[in-house]
């Protein structure tokens, strides 16, 4: 088996053909020549596209290098999440969600409940979802969690879920398939927002679902076809192009994130510091057990004394954009409470480390903290 960097560079490329590009350009097509019956690999643009196919093959190689898998790409991460939940769950079913997951998931919970689905929640930390798993149709895991960066044991949860016939989906957005492989750990679905670290340039909305089960793939793709939650061919092509640098970005960002976290550790105004790569972090042991060495993600979270202090800190930064999302080559940070969907303090900062020189980034963070403290 090849290494991660080699796989990321070569994943999903077609066989070499003389005088053709190594990665064919995007195919723009609403319909295709379709003689005879309505069957074939490409029939209509809402169902399939050659540019999607290459990207889907590439992501499958990254998420499941040791076993055949099938990926379905979507218009966004939320489209991918919705496809899994709403294709698998029916009225009267039980779904278990983490209560500290991505801030739009409460809206998903409301929609599920409006359809007569029972939703139970528990924290990510301590594998607490085990306590509310009984009788569930689907268990949704997010590890490391966003934005709190807690970690749970995927294998333990998956084994308990499968013992009672429960499906398991893991949001792998923060870890990326080079940091963690949920399917190898027992999950049925690996789901992610490709908007973030997978594509890494802050210019694409994309999502995907990977599974090793053909029936699950078929149901997810039927949902995609029905609701039309499809990516554009240009977005799919740009995403595939970006995969070639994934290993470089993931490794550089992980080094930078750890450097920032270590620099923040001794600041008296900083509390609640979290990064799974810190040996002192509560999630470190769990992260080491199931994530790839040295690839603990690009996100650092911490709390400043109050909203005003946090806003001053963000305004003082010169190498970091005040923007949402994470995983891009340019560092971003935000006061997460401004969205209202996360149970975090007013001074909570989610910091996404980019590809800048770690020393420059640390210097900018410390200078910004000093400036914020002087106000």
Automatic annotation (TrEMBL):
The keyword Lyase applies. It comes from the Bacteria. Its cofactor is pyridoxal 5'-phosphate. Its EC number is 4.4.1.1. The keyword Lyase applies. Pfam families: Cys_Met_Meta_PP (PF01053). Keywords: Lyase, Pyridoxal phosphate. One of its GO terms (molecular function) is lyase activity. Belongs to the trans-sulfuration enzymes family. This is Cystathionine gamma-lyase. It comes from Streptomyces ochraceiscleroticus.
